[in-house]
Design a protein that fits this description.
single chain, Rossmann fold, Alpha-Beta Plaits, six-stranded mixed β-sheet, four-stranded antiparallel β-sheet, 14 strands
């Protein structure tokens, strides 16, 4: 099944913030998928709201690509349901496809064409194709228009793949390691474009990355994937400002967490009856007799993706 095939030509975890919200751009319920008997997605629950930029984090091989491709029908799940824009994925039609932009981990371009020919071809499939935007990005990112795609560098091909995904003015943009072939300047320009896309159009963006510094520049929310599920999703600023590791005797740590009404994100039992808790909330009182420390994004990644 390849639900994200082109439309016909011109027929054309746990969420820490839970206030009333508009209908989800993506809603995943109980998604399950295994390879060789090993669960990759395990009753996974997830929700992406309009205008969210979500960075998806997880260790190598945890299933990030599998999850993103399953959202778009590019992989068949064994169970569960995905809904896009309120409609079941199984009912995806040309109108829904035209609202989605996708950049895979490996660029899937017609390398016997030139970039100009490629964009002209895709333009015919999308009613909201923004030609001036595509031209501006091609110029700014210095992508040769009349050179065979097969002759472009890896970074140029990745930029071209991104232009192809942005030009249709998608409502949902899914990117799998979109900056892996870009140098630091190219990554910065791309991330700036993502922010503008969200601010201008309210696009929902989800992208996986292993470059944590990029998340700190652009991801308003982060989702940590571990053991086949979304362990935690939250605004990055909330995690960075309010998340601390509290370590000490288990009974005293639990007492402090209850007294401060903290939200526990992870618990690790240590030797000698000690407990390490990752907790977020209003840390109004310093825990007496306990070790209390803030965490960097690298620390959070290590704790939440075990």
């Amino acid at each position: 099944m390849n639900t994200l095939s082109l439309p016909q030509a011109h027929s054309p975890g746990r969420l820490l913030a839970s206030s009333a919200a508009p209908a989800a751009s993506v809603e995943v319920r109980g998604l399950t998928l295994s390879y060789a008997g090993k669960p990759v997605l395990d009753q996974l629950e997830w929700q992406l709201l309009p205008g969210q930029v979500v960075g998806l984090l997880g260790r190598n091989g945890v299933g990030k690509t599998t999850l993103l491709e399953s959202l778009l029908g590019l992989r068949d799940a064994a169970g569960g349901e995905v809904r896009l824009f309120g409609s079941p994925l199984a009912q995806m039609d040309d109108g829904m496809r035209a609202r989605i932009g996708f950049v895979p981990q490996q660029s899937q371009l017609f390398d016997w064409l030139t970039p100009k020919q490629l964009l002209a071809y895709f333009r015919s499939f999308y009613p909201k194709w923004n030609a001036p935007k595509a031209e501006a990005l091609m110029s700014r990112w210095e992508i040769p228009q009349d050179q065979l795609i097969s002759k472009l560098s890896g970074g140029q091909q990745q930029r071209l793949s991104i232009v192809r995904a942005l030009a249709p003015e998608p409502d949902l943009l899914v990117l799998d390691e979109p900056v892996s072939s870009l140098d630091p300047v190219g990554r910065r320009d791309f991330l700036r474009e993502l922010v503008e896309q969200v601010l201008d159009r309210g696009t929902t963006v989800v992208f996986s990355t292993h470059i944590l510094s990029d998340l700190e520049r652009v991801a308003f929310n982060v989702a940590f994937m571990a053991r086949g599920r979304i362990a935690v999703q939250a605004p990055l600023s909330d995690l960075m400002d309010g998340c601390r590791r509290i370590t000490g005797p288990a009974s005293r740590v639990d007492l402090h967490v209850r007294a401060q009404a903290l939200t526990v994100l992870s618990r690790r039992e240590l030797a000698g009856g000690q407990l390490a808790v990752l907790a977020t909330g209003e840390h109004a009182a310093r825990p007496e007799g306990l070790h209390d420390e803030p965490l960097s994004l690298e620390d959070l990644f290590a704790e939440l993706t075990q």
